[in-house]
Amino acid sequence: MKWKWPEAAQRWKGALGRYIYVVLVMAVGAVLLLLPSGGRDSPQADAHEEEAFDLGAFEAKLERTLSRIEGAGEARVVLTLDGGSRQVLAHNQDRDGGGGGSSTVVTVGRGSGQQDVVPLQTVAPQFRGALIVCPGGGDAQVRLKLIQAVSALTGLGADRISVCAGG
Questions:
Q1: In this predicted model, what pLDDT tens digit does every residue of 44-73 receive, in sequence order?
Q2: Cβ atoms of residues 135 and 167 within 8 Å
Q3: How far apart are CA 88 and CA 166, in angstroms?
Q4: Is residue 39 over pLDDT 50?
Q5: Quick one: how far is CA 164 from the chain centroid?
Q6: C-beta of residue 93 within 8 angstroms of C-beta of residue 102
Q7: Would you say residue 132 has pLDDT above 90?
Q8: What are the CA-CA distances from residue 78 to residues 55, 151, 164 (Å)?
Q9: What's the CA gap between 77 and 82, in Å, rounded?
Q10: Where are the beta strands (DSSP E) in 17-158?
Q11: Contact 40, 98 (CB under 8 A)
Q12: How far apart (Å, rounded) are the C-alpha atoms in residues 17 and 40?
């Protein structure tokens, strides 16, 4: 005895045969939507994950680096800053026909009535001066190497870097 497909199943079988490629594309699309994207969820995640300037960590890294200079010994570094880091925000400028205009800070709605500003960049603080204390600070050649290294890393001039001999 031969089994016969029901009438509704016959129609589905015929439609599936005609639209098999459409069904395959939809299935692949559904699978791709379920896979993790590996990207960030929102542009705001970039702003909050930006690396903030840490003066203590920078001083510690500079101390380790300067201590490796021949003749310097174990160096201690103190850096001073002109102000703190700041953010440059996105602005929307509107001009009217009379030559005047206004500027407003661009914000993004995050739902629930929250508004966040749109930062374009974060500007690190400027260094004001540096003090280096190390056992080899009394030697002129070591002192020159230390000043050149600190100047290259901080942008400070030699007149703003002080090297002292210490134990």
A1: 444 444 466 788 899 999 999 999 999 999
A2: yes
A3: 41
A4: yes
A5: 36
A6: yes
A7: yes
A8: 9, 14, 12
A9: 17
A10: 76-82, 86-89, 91-95, 101-105, 107-109, 115-117, 119-123, 126-134
A11: no
A12: 40
- Work out the number of other CB atoms within 10 angstroms of the CB of residue 44: 15
What is the Rg, in whole angstroms, of the alpha carbon atoms belonging to the chain? Answer: 32
Highest mean pLDDT among 3-12, 39-48, 91-100, 126-135: 126-135
Pairing of strands 76-82, 126-134: antiparallel
For 160, counting Cβ atoms within 10 Å of its Cβ (0-12 exposed, 13-18 middle, 19+ buried), the class is middle
Q: Which residues have a Cβ under 8 Å from the Cβ of 78 and sit 6 or more positions away?
A: 59, 130, 131
Of residues 31 and 130, the one with the higher pLDDT is 130
pLDDT higher than 70, residue 126: yes
Amino acid at 117: V
The predicted model gives 21-48 an average pLDDT of 70
Given a contact cutoff of 8 angstroms between Cβ atoms, the answer to whether 117 and 40 are in contact is no
Cβ-contact 109, 136 below 8 angstroms: no
* Contact (Cβ atoms closer than 8 angstroms) between residue 127 and residue 121: no
pTM of the predicted structure, to 2 decimals: 0.54
